[in-house]
């Protein structure tokens, strides 16, 4: 147990980050949530993050605005179509165009800076290396390397108190993530995962994020509570 110590949780408003926040809370951490408005295709993510933070009673929730659209290079930040499929089995094995270059490095760097200011020694990020889209910055070896760097580059690391990067979902399937969240009482109806929702926030049901999410709920024998535009 953490004894009520502070932890920075990267909170996107999606299924994984919300489950990650629920796990941090269940471990007794005082959550300080960090949301990144990075120029993604829609504002539904940040709106969902605000709902999740309120639901969990998070007192410190910061949204940082940066504009990765100036770089582009991704279907989430540039003028590139989001790939759509009919089934999760159709998702390719390569790095997809929805990969945002260096996104988790940028996000974790902000989390690291805030953790130092807060005197927090723990950072939670909901990366997953099983049911995911093949992003290189979701792999265990990347997280391990960032953790080493964090302890070389910070006052906390130099003075010996250290920082820890927690990835409680990294070895779980999407079905296991959903089950763990449900066991912790997470209301997934307040989350959003779709890369390409419509103006009303309804999920497309065919992007990688939707298909993996639907797979997780289906394997638990329950329906996803969020609205889909074709449902």
Task: Tag the structure with descriptive keywords.
Rossmann fold; 231 residues
Layout: helices, strands, pairs:
Blueprint: E1 6-10, H1 15-26, E2 30-37, H2 44-55, E3 60-65, H3 103-118, E4 122-124, H4 140-153, H5 155-158, E5 164-166, H6 174-183, H7 208-218
Parallel strand pairs: 1-2, 1-4, 2-3, 4-5
Kindly describe this structure.
This protein has helices at 15-26, 44-55, 103-118, 140-153, 155-158, 174-183, 208-218, and strands at residues 6-10, 30-37, 60-65, 122-124, 164-166. The chain has 231 residues and is α/β, with parallel strands linked by helices. Helix content is 34%, strand content 11%. The model has no long low-confidence stretch (mean pLDDT 95). The protein is globular and about 55 Å long. The protein has a five-stranded parallel β-sheet, sandwiched between helices. The protein has one domain: Rossmann fold, CATH 3.40.50.620.
CATH architecture: 3-Layer(aba) Sandwich
The top level CATH class name: Alpha Beta
> First CA to last CA: what distance?
42 Å
Percent of residues in β-strands: 5-15%
Look at the structure and give the mean pLDDT. Answer: 95
Overall structural domain count:
1
According to CATH, the homologous superfamily is: HUPs
Alpha-beta classification: alpha/beta
């Amino acid at each position: 147990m953490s004894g009520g110590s502070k932890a920075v949780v990267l909170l996107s408003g999606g299924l994984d980050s919300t489950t990650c926040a629920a796990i941090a809370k269940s471990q007794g951490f005082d959550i300080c949530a960090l949301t990144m408005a990075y120029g993604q295709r829609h504002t539904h993510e940040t709106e969902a993050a605000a709902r999740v933070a309120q639901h969990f009673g998070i007192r410190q929730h910061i949204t940082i605005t940066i504009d990765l659209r100036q770089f582009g290079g991704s279907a989430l930040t540039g003028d590139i179509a989001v790939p759509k499929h009919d089934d999760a089995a159709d998702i390719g094995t390569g790095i997809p165009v929805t990969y945002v270059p260096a996104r988790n490095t940028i996000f974790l760097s902000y989390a690291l800076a805030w953790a130092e200011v807060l005197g927090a020694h723990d950072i939670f990020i909901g990366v997953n290396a099983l049911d995911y889209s093949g992003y290189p910055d979701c792999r265990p070896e990347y997280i391990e390397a960032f953790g080493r760097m964090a302890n070389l580059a910070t006052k906390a690391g130099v003075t010996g108190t250290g920082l820890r990067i927690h990835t409680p979902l990294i070895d779980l399937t999407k079905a296991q993530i959903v089950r763990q969240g449900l066991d912790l009482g997470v209301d997934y109806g307040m989350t959003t995962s779709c890369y390409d929702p419509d103006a009303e926030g309804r999920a497309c049901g065919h992007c990688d994020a939707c298909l993996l999410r639907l797979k997780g709920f289906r394997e638990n024998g329950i329906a996803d509570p969020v609205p889909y535009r074709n449902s």
